[in-house]
Amino acid sequence: EPEVTQTPSHQVTQMGQEVILRCVPISNHLYFYWYRQILGQKVEFLVSFYNNEISEKSEIFDDQFSVERPDGSNFTLKIRSTKLEDSAMYFCASSEASAGYGYTFGSGTRLTVV
Amino acid sequence: AQKVTQAQTEISVVEKEDVTLDCVYETRDTTYYLFWYKQPPSGELVFLIRRNSFDEQNEISGRYSWNFQKSTSSFNFTITASQVVDSAVYFCALSEAPWGGGYQKVTFGIGTKLQVIP
């Protein structure tokens, strides 16, 4: 079964550093997403991306965050200057054109900011 | 705006007991999708079921069953004869479905932590 692949599975970074989280969505999917889950809390929507632009972003997705699809397969989330409160699990997801189908999450990247 | 409420934050049951996890949702759309995900201690989200708003049939998959009732905006999940491996956090989630497809934002409930005691 097709998978959404995320790398790395765990990343530790120092406060103030930039990090890039990488995702390879399912190849025929057109919509891409990032979600965040602070430890012990619910999974929260960050951003959706389609046709090389952001479709919607949440209040969490402020100027320190950016997303990019640098080539035909990767989808990245960049955090420019990490803060302690950015420590969380970050999930990438992708979906097909048809609503409700093929919505698949990756296994997540656990980001720890020290 | 869409909202998902899981009133039970933690449940403990003894192995082989049945357990029902409650989920109540709010949406203004007539077309939407409901999901259940399992999050084991390893942290990944494991997809369990997707149900669209036009299909109110209950579903059974092995020891798992789901009861969808639009009249009460509920989508409850029952595990029959629970096992220790069922111990996890379970999330109910909702996605509104735009006409003609398109991107969908999934809204998650806060999750119910299930502990199955041997």
Fill in the keyword field for this structure:
A: mainly beta, 4-stranded antiparallel beta sheet, 11 strands, B: 118 residues, 12 strands, 0% helix, 53% strand
What can you see in these coordinates?
The complex is a heterodimer of chains A (about 110) and B (about 120). With about 110 residues, chain A is mainly beta. Chain A is about 0% helix and about 50% strand. Chain A is built from no helices and eleven strands. Chain A has strands spanning about 5, 10-15, 20-25, 30-35, 45-50, 55, 65-70, 75-80, 90-95, 105, 110-114. In chain A, strands 2, 4, 5, 6, 9, 10 and 11 form a seven-stranded mixed β-sheet that branches. The mean pLDDT of chain A is about 90. With about 120 residues, chain B is mainly beta. Helix content of chain B is about 0%, strand content about 55%. Chain B is built from no helices and twelve strands. In chain B, strands 2, 5, 6, 10, 11 and 12 form a six-stranded mixed β-sheet that branches. Chain B has a four-stranded antiparallel β-sheet with strand order 3-9-8-7, with no helix packed on it. In chain B, a hairpin with a 2-residue loop joins β7 (about 60) and β8 (about 65-70).
